UniProtKB/TrEMBL annotation:
The gene is pstC. Part of the binding-protein-dependent transport system for phosphate; probably responsible for the translocation of the substrate across the membrane. The chain crosses the membrane at residues 20-37, 65-94, 106-130, 162-183, 277-296. One of its GO terms (biological process) is phosphate ion transport. Keywords: Cell inner membrane, Cell membrane, Membrane, Phosphate transport, Transmembrane, Transmembrane helix, Transport. This is Phosphate transport system permease protein.
Length: 312
């Protein structure tokens, strides 16, 4: 009797866990279908041209996704350009260079940064960073690069304080704790014998990092970067505070613009008809972008994992 009961419980447990696993696929499919259904009017009206149309005019009922898409990708790119080297430096300091007494408090401080709500980052960016940046930093940066080919255009424009660069900078501060935590954990997995052998052969700290630590942990490092990218792509409140929320293609990184998440947050509550359908299509595009990024990262990690633990 006891054996029969155990067998029944075992079958129930397996079926329950299987149901939970398939529930993930069901939820993803449901989200995809609901976004497609809700945006059907916009898809039918605008077609594929919705992706490269930069007009967003609720009065004329004309909508295009190019500005939010460019703003989303550009702010995420700026965030990674800033966050990846900073996170790498912090993680390397914690695992290789930091005194033992400093590792725990510094690690705790990094984890606390990850726990701060995004709206706090946005408020700090708008009310503290933006005035300082606008008055004391941005004008000098604009003057510094003025007249230089390419760079002069990249850093051009009036010093508003808010804009694409500010949004990317705030995003970088937000994703640094996540990337740092992953990098620190994977760096700690490197066998001490490998590093000690390299040091014994006369390698410097940088040579050990470049030729031993990074080749051994490249999969985890890429995973941490992709985790940060996923957080940056979908961030809403912090970006909404500082990006400027203007449906204009940025002429420089200091220009106000918009992102997909910010557009949804600002307009969805009062939208209806074609505007609501266009916003849902923006949500569908963001969903597809994150899916493509995740799929690409998985393929990259799969390829890198074949050479895990080997140096080049």
């Amino acid at each position: 009797m006891k054996n029969n009961r155990s067998a029944v419980m075992d079958v129930l447990f397996k079926n329950l866990t299987r149901t939970f696993a398939f529930l993930v696929f069901i939820l993803l499919a449901a989200i995809m279908v609901s976004l497609l259904y809700g945006s059907r009017e916009s898809i039918a009206a605008h077609g594929i041209a919705f992706l490269w149309t930069n007009n967003w005019d609720p009065v004329q009922n004309v909508y295009g996704a190019m500005v939010p898409i460019v703003g989303t990708l550009l702010t995420s790119f700026i965030a990674l350009v800033i966050a990846v080297p900073v996170s790498f430096g912090i993680a390397m300091f914690l695992t290789e260079l930091s005194p033992v007494w400093l590792r725990r408090p510094l690690g705790t401080a990094i984890e606390m940064l990850a726990a701060i709500p995004s709206i706090i980052y946005g408020m700090w960016g708008l009310f503290v960073f933006v005035p300082i940046f606008q008055q004391y930093i941005q004008p000098h940066v604009i003057d510094l690069f003025a007249g230089i080919p390419v760079l002069g255009d990249v850093f051009a424009g009036p010093p508003f304080g808010i804009g694409v660069f500010t949004a990317g900078l705030i995003l970088s501060i937000m994703v640094i704790p996540f990337i740092t935590a992953v990098m620190r954990d994977v760096f700690e997995l490197v066998p001490p014998l490998l590093k000690e052998s390299a040091y014994g052969l006369g390698s410097t700290t940088w040579e050990v990092v470049w030729r031993v630590v990074l080749p051994y942990t490249k999969t985890g490092v890429i995973g941490g970067i992709m985790l940060g990218l996923g957080r940056a792509l979908g961030e809403t409140m912090a970006v909404t505070f500082v990006i400027g929320n203007a449906f204009n293609l940025p002429s420089s990184i200091f220009s106000p613009s918009n992102s997909i998440a910010s557009a949804l947050a600002n307009e969805f509550n009062e939208a209806g008809g074609m505007q609501k359908a266009a916003l849902l299509e923006l949500g569908l595009i963001l969903f597809l972008i994150t899916t493509v990024v995740l799929a690409f990262s998985k393929l990259l990690l799969l390829r890198l994992s074949k050479g895990e633990g080997t140096s080049h």
